[in-house]
Amino acid sequence: MKIFNTLDRRKEEFVPLEPGKVRMYVCGPTVYNYIHIGNARPMIFFDTVRRYFAYRGYEVNFVSNFTDVDDKIIKAANEEGVDSSVISERFIAECKKDMEGMNVMPATVHPKATEEIDGMIDMISELIEKGYAYEVNGTVYYRVRRFKDYGKLSGKNLDDLQSGSRSLLVTGEDEKEDPMDFVLWKPKKEGEPYWESPWGQGRPGWHIECSVMSKKYLGEQIDIHGGGEDLIFPHHENEIAQSEAASGKEFSHYWMHNAFLNIDGTKMSKSLGNFFTVREVSEKYDLQVLRFFMLSAHYRSPLNFSAELMQAAKNGLDRIVTAVQRVDEHVKTTPVTGQLSESVKTAVDALVQKFEEAMDDDFNTADGIAALFELVKASNTALDEGANLETAKYLSDKMHMLCDVFGIITEKKEEILDAQVEALIEERQAARKAKNFARADEIRDQLAAQGILLKDTREGVKWSRA
Length: 466
Ligand code: AMP
Ligand code: ZN
Known about the structure:
The protein is an alpha/beta fold. It has 15 helices and 15 strands. It has helices at residues 37-55, 71-80, 84-101, 117-129, 158-165, 206-218, 232-247, 278-284, 287-295, 307-333, 342-360, 365-384, 389-406, 413-433, 437-449; strands at 2-5, 10-13, 21-26, 59-64, 133-136, 139-142, 182-187, 202-204, 222-228, 252-258, 261-263, 266-267, 303-304, 452-457, 460-465.
């Protein structure tokens, strides 16, 4: 497999640190509002990367954080007159709902910055001891000039950066040794959340959280670090400076960055106000369509959001899902058995290979999807010609395999709903057994609200829709 590594701006063969395993970290959202569809691009893309590694037989440890302490969260909390954790918890929950709608798998771990403060204090202390950081009046800064590789990811040169940033000094920052030095810890201000630290009460800077969470859940060295391209500088450059100065080892071997999701040719962002939230889009389209739309372009190409492209994505997705459901129905109902058709097998295998070649080439999902469309066509033709059970099964297996990598849900809505009802009934039975009647009643009420009627019979609980 080849991956485009931002570190040297070329495609490189993927060699994991540990055979058969992938350790990856993807910077997650700052939770002060609903996520917008620009934020959804890295979520959907890196989820697909994760799924493809799993398809290739790797065990993937996938960590993605929630930034739950930040100026914007504090501002939103003050406006509402609530604690900032009320805002962050609310939007973490909403974000998880959106992720589910987009069929983005939950990360192996979703750490929250506010729960990792001790680790941050440890790393900052270590950086001070090693001479990479210094404290002035309760603020701890990273001494950028001390880290000789500073700029290696973004390709920026410290002297150029410095001449550009001299005028950017904001009030209170004149205490820095160098205008490029960045904050690791800042003293508390009135009305802000704070933690105790060796430098007084305060809170961490943004960059330190990812270095610390990545180290805690994945180890000092990881295979892949990802995020949107706006994070290359300064966020990822600073993560490298922190992690590598602390450990003395290379932090991440591959750095992957998705291009922007644009609207009318401009980056979609909250600060520009030109954004749609995932929630808004979900009112108009199934979020599966949004996912498919994102994957229809290469992740390193900018992608423009438009109604026409969403309609095209919807049509394409419908074609795939209809074909999979058709072949599955055929498998259930065909009376014709026999040998797997050699010609169908040869054609299908060639298309699966085409799919793998596309994905092996720096996750070219656009070409991978093209191979899936060809598979759909081959399947429809084979069924038109009255494919036997074995042939239909072969087609079905391969189509499901590819759909799983792209995160395309092929089951009918009713089937998914039925499965959810059955899971709840099972949970209710378990709750009753454990004498947790409160939970059992809660589930019964929840089901009743959905119009599900329960009936205890000798063979167990039967259910029906009112
Ligand atoms: P934020 O909440 O701004 O820290 O962003 C969370 C993630 O979304 C980061 O990986 C960003 O790079 C990414 N992101 C934000 N806006 C866009 C956009 N318009 N297109 C693609 N990725 C974006
Ligand atoms: Zn990060």
